[in-house]
Every structure is written in C-alpha cells, then in structure tokens.
Amino acid sequence: MRKKEMPDHMQFGTKAIHAGVEPDPTTGSIMTPIYQTSTYVQEGPGQHKGYAYARGANPTRNSLQKSIAALENGRFGLCFSSGMGATDAVIRLLNPGDEVITSNDLYGGSYRLFKRVYERFGIVFHFVDLSNVQEAEKYITPNTKLLWLETPSNPLMRIIDIAACVALAKQHHLRVAVDNTFASPYLQNPLDLGADIVMHSVTKYLGGHSDVIMGALVVNDEKLYTDLAFIANACGAVPGPQDSFLVLRGIKTLHLRMERHCQNGRVVAHFLRSHPKVAQVYWPGFEDHPNHAIAKKQMRDFGGMLSFTLKDDSQENAARVMKSVQLFSLAESLGGVESLINHPASMTHASIPKEERIKNGLSDSLIRLSVGVEDASDLVDDLGQAMG
Fold this sequence. Notes:
single chain; Aspartate Aminotransferase, domain 1; Aspartate Aminotransferase, domain 2
C-alpha cells in the first residue's frame, strides 16, 4: 500500500482530515487501526522497527502525534494521558531553584500542580498579570527558566501578547510555553509566534466529544523533543490506543466544530451583554475587551468560551441560574459539542485560595460557559429563561 503524497502546504481543514494519517499498509483501512497491544515481537534481541513496548511508542498514538503537530505547524508532537500529564512533563525539564513566571489567572489544576506539587521540590513560581508583558520583566532573575502562558485565560478570557512575551524571553534566554487549550490550533498557533512549547488539553476542543482525557505537547526543537519524549517514556503518563483513535476521529471535524463554536459564542456573548440582569461579560471578541487588538492579531476568531457575572452579585443567584438551565449542562471541562455551564469558584478553580481568586478578579458569582454547536437561538432562549 503506497503512502499518500501530501502537498507541502495545506489549508487547516485539509490538514485536520489528512495530516499524519496513512492508509493501513496491511488492509488499506482509511482509518488508523487501534493497535491494542502492550508489546511487539522483535526479529532479534534489540532488533525492532521503532516499536518495542507500548509505553514508548504505539502506531495509533504516533499517527495522532503527527496530526496534532501538523495542526500547530510544528515538527514534533507528544501525547500524554491528560493535559496535566503534559504540563507535568514540561515542569520536569526544570531543576530545584529554577523559577517560572506564569499568569495570575490560569486553570486551577495548573495552579495546584505548580503550588502544591512542584514548589515542594524547590521550583519557584511567580503568578503575574501577564496581560501587561512588562510586569513579567520585574520578576526575571538569573534563575528564571520558563514563561508559562495561558491565552485566552481560564476563566476571565485575558489575552496575553505571545509575540511580546517571546521577544522578552529571548532577551533573557528563557523558554516560552503556551497553554493553547481555549483557542485550539484552529484559532491560534503559538509556535508561529516564536513559542518553544505548545500544550493542549486534548480532552477539550481537539477531542471535541467529551469522551477522552488526554494532553499533548508540540515543539520544533529536536533536542527539546528528545528530552520531553524521554520524560514521557520514563514517567509513563501516556494515552492508550483507543483514546488516540477517538481523538484522531475528533480532529477530522475540528475546523467545522470550531466555526460553529465561534459563531455561537458571538451570539451568546452579545445576548448576555444586552441582558438587564448581567453585569459584565468576558469575551475577547468585544472591542473594549482588554487586549482585544492583540487577540484580533494573534487569533483567527474569538472562540466559544466566555464568562459573565450577574448584577445580583451573589453565589446563590449564580447557583440558581446554573440549576435552571435546560440545554446547558452543569459540568466541568469544555470544548465538547454540547454546551456546558460551570462555576469556577467551586469547580475548576476550587483549589485556588479564595483570597487569591478574589484578588485576581475571579468572583464567587462568576459563571463560565463553554458554548457548544447546538442552534444558537435555542442556547439564547435557555439562558434567557434561566435568568428570568
């Protein structure tokens, strides 16, 4: 079975369907088979074709890694058992005494990993408002090794200027890693802006159907890839072939889903902003959203993630709204085809101390939406009836 000849330059939708995927050489199967095996027969001791033990490599996973790398315009991709597994691998590149500058508004799981796991091993984390890149420079010391960015941020949708952070990092010989989960490769490609590492919670938009837990890293530097691949193999946080197959299938419709997520997100954001009971809406597509111009420059659209607060600024009122919706499901996670509603203070960001959350603008009444691909008018009607 001859390999498919891929054009040098493909549009995103074409890459989503074809990149990294080859017909099965034995049967011609157009879908990558699920290689459900833990080990591989060798022709002689140490004589194998790149596959010895499935923790190190699996053909289904390899196809997915190539696909995700292509979507991010990167050379090398690695998949992990979760987004936190991927994040953990990046921090394992560091040594005790090294310092990391990161956002003061980021996913609670990342905060928990940084503060409660790695600070015990002597790695220092500075949580800074990186929407103003100059703030980061104040914290750079000879021990600083990494800038960890999340843009748009979770849950306040703050926008960080990736190119400006890269320029600052190059001055001080730092690496830049970008959590690109909220944007997906469809909206934003940090490697093109000079970042060293892109991280995805593949669970979200890449998988797209709320049925997989997975993470990924994409890099261009071969030495960096080799170091991360060693960590993945040595520490073992790798996904199985069934999950890899499901994500390969999900990616084939990523561009179609993201178009609808963006369309629906725009409709819902404007509806909420005009609602008399809503105090503030956080969505980077608004022209008065902080750093909107940067979002417009480094993103292709503004996505389906948004947050809002109510004028009756109480957790009880927010809870009432979240319990009253019918189409939006009250659940953690995001990026699936179905719309989700979430209370960051008690769910995704509960591991962040309340005083830290409030100081950084994450109030107890904040509601986060992952706008799905249903009909937008039904979503608007659902929110309208829930708020009364």
